[in-house]
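Final paragraph of the annual report: two paired records, presented back to back.
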Amino acid sequence: MTTFASGTDTLTRDALTVLQPGFTGTTAPDWLLRRLGEGLASVGLFGRNIASAEQLSALTAQLRAERDDVLVAIDEEGGDVTRLEVRTGSSFPGNNALGAVDDVDLTREVAAELGRRLAACGVNLNWAPSADVNSNPANPVIGVRSFGAEPALVARHTAAYVTGLQSAGVAACTKHFPGHGDTAVDSHHALPRIDVPADVLSARELAPFHAAITAGTRAVMSAHILVPALDPDRPATLSHRILTGLLRRELGYDGLIVTDGMEMRAIAGTYGIERGSVLAIAAGADAICVGGGLADDETVRRLRDALVAAVRSGELPEARLAEAADRVRSLARWTTTAKAARPQPAPDTEVGLRAARRALRLTGADAFTPLTDPPYVAALTPVANIAVGDETPWGVAAELFRLLPGTETGTFSGEDAGLATLAAAGPRRIVAVVRDEHRHPWMAAALDTVLRSRPDTVVIEMGLPQAPPRGALHIATHGAARVCGRAAAEIIAGA
């Protein structure tokens, strides 16, 4: 594509301002710093960009040396989706654990501490919380990322999370509008569709977004989902009816609208990222998130030039692009003011563990005697969805090894997982760790095999606890964060 401008005129600067690109590496590449000088106003960070809190602080300082009001965004939900602790597992349980406790003060405290840690590292926009009502237990991408399946519960915890996070001066980006909970398809791979009447959507999916807007969420992220009751032709990210008609006019939201990642197949595989970005801005989005997969200067140039070309051809009104860019700058001003106005709260390093402990649900605990000998931990491991990723460790083995030195572990999947587990465990007591047993027939079959031979097996469910509890002791953690594993290990070892 032809480059239309040098990066100094207003139109081109606005086109750069609405982009939220990613990059590779743990320091900012030269091309990214150059684009910040030309008008780029936001940068998205992922697990690949983070090695430690100290390194992250140095990286954000490097970005701000080029542009002091840059929005530094991250996908840090806590729980299963963590970037700050991508290599160790999160110090915070995720939404489903918080929903299981159902203490809005605790949710607010967890979000505030998470926000404090983000702010301390120079991050000022968090693509969280997930406000999706997980009404479909088979949902392959939301699951424990949701506070639950009941709209009122999800609404009150979404509001508490937004309030807590923003109390630390970090903007919340409530997602995935108008609600991704009733899908059976992952929008990273294809275009999901929600076929329910508008009144159901209003009462169920939209309730948490009402709550988030009332709580003052500074950003909302659109979903790449088709909702025929709202717009039969275009997915929400590209729908003027949904972003402008519903979110802006009906719900009265006036903050930043951010798209979900444009390289996700729901958009990239149907419209392409250039065309999709133009349609998204025209529909009412203000910021284009890209960089989870495509993370280079060529992507930024292509999207910038597509937006400029669309304005020049008359397809995209210049005023709409300027409005979007103004909203980005407005959020940047809020983060700068919020940081200056808020005293740094004292750290509460144990709040995540306290929450994880309270979220545990035990079945069979009355007859259970804590283990004194090191067990064999069998992790029955499904394929991780893209949002969670497979680089973050999960389970209880590491925490049990700390409490019961000599604990051994193995990972199993597929039709022979049960027999393989029995063979590997030998005479040791088995601790079987599963994740969404109800969604994986091979996992349920493996547990059947193990429990027939070893009924004293301890079962830990670290996904949605939809399958009936079984085993000598069944522990539902409502998530696979590191602290969830620690809380479960404490029960098993009687710590």
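The closing record of the year follows.
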Amino acid sequence: MNTGDSEDEKPIVVGTTSAPSTLDPAASWDGSWELFRNVYQTLVAFPSGAAEPEADAAECSFQDSANRVYHCELREDMKFSDGHPLDAAAVKHSVDRIRTIGVKGGPVGLLGSLDKVTTSGDRDVTFHLKKPDATFPFVLATPALSIVDPDEYPAKALRQDGAVTGSGPYELKSYTDGERAELVRNPNYKGFADRKNGAVTIRYFGKSAEMVQALKAKKIDATFRGLAAEDVVDLQTKNATDGLQLVEGAGTEISYLVFNPKDPWAGKRAVRRAVAQVVDRGAIAHEIYKDTVEPLFSMVPRGLAGHTTDFFDDFGDPSPAKAAEILSKAGITAPVPLTLWYTTDRYGSATAPEFAALKQQLEDSKLFRVTLKSRPWKTYEAGYRKGEYPVFGRGWFPDFPDADNFIAPFVGQENAVSTPYVSPEITDQLLPQSRRESDRGAVVRQFERAQQIMVDDARLLPLWQGKQYIAASDEISGGERALDPSTIMMMWELHRKTSW
């Protein structure tokens, strides 16, 4: 039996359509985390099957009943992949630089409850919070809080040399932007990951069809993000004869529209609510995604405490007549001009047909005149951070499995979609109340109220909730254990059946 210790083992090649936008954790609140989880390390993390954060680089716990002082003790003799010591000062540096650099739309938005970080000796780190926050351990478990080497990552600027120095299970041996990342075992790693392979190569594809073709041609061993609906359906019907397997996992990925309040049309509540009244989620889920996703009627997905169906409860079935009444009462004359933006290379090849369907639905109502525009993710992301788009599509892969993470990131002056959404009741009352409670099942009332506010405002329009699929060669095992609660692939769980 080979436990994957051999450095000569042929790398497992994994395909995805989700390429990183950056290699620096201080700049990323997006799919870049998928790489980060494997090359960087966090203080706490989610081992396979865990519902709450557990020890990774450190043992951590709240030191007070108010959930305001969180203490971590690092493992002994921790090192980065370059051999430099990973100590308490490095942890403080990693967190402080996120706030100092303050990338707009970046992970600084996760640290709103943090007051300061203090250290004692080489191994003790304490996080002092401004207010009670039982979700803080979940935040620390996200790849945004990856620990970086102070000698390689400036305190006041992003790292620019295209390299990674972390303490995760793997080292980044080489990286070609938009093409591939080659991962090899980090000999200095100390953490929970039980690495079942010697090396992994991640290949980045522009389209699902290209990725599946590479899988069938045995040029890659597995896929982990971006399978198009038609490819999933194809694999469901043919995988038995193609020597492939399809692993389906419960997903909490969501897709939604964002309305820019500074746009003269999207900024009008009646326009947003009229769009909500017209959009047919069921048709999109069935006709575009072949039922590989399901319609979503709140920002909190099914499966999490606090999920509701408020958009359906308030708006019912799609109705142009009701939408016309909403516009008429607000004194708005149709057709309303709207420009909808989407990204061409982040959320899968069905995105363009989905937005074509949205345009068709809105224009068929005779209430809207829609222009579609698109960009690749890197320029698309820069555009929405600058507030350039009236209406734009986003996907959300959760930072952690809690309803808080489907509400808090989207409200406030600074948020994950870079369009200010001021809602004092949510930010000043409901979220603080919920964060005082360690029992996350006991805060349903606050989340239900927050979602009703969001439905009334219609600043965000949920469209669908996805499932997670891993397609792999029959020779590969571990796919069913490889997804963490945020549906990020833990590459170390994959292995060849002949070598395990």
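The mean pLDDT is 92. This concludes the annual technical report; the extension proposal builds directly on these records.
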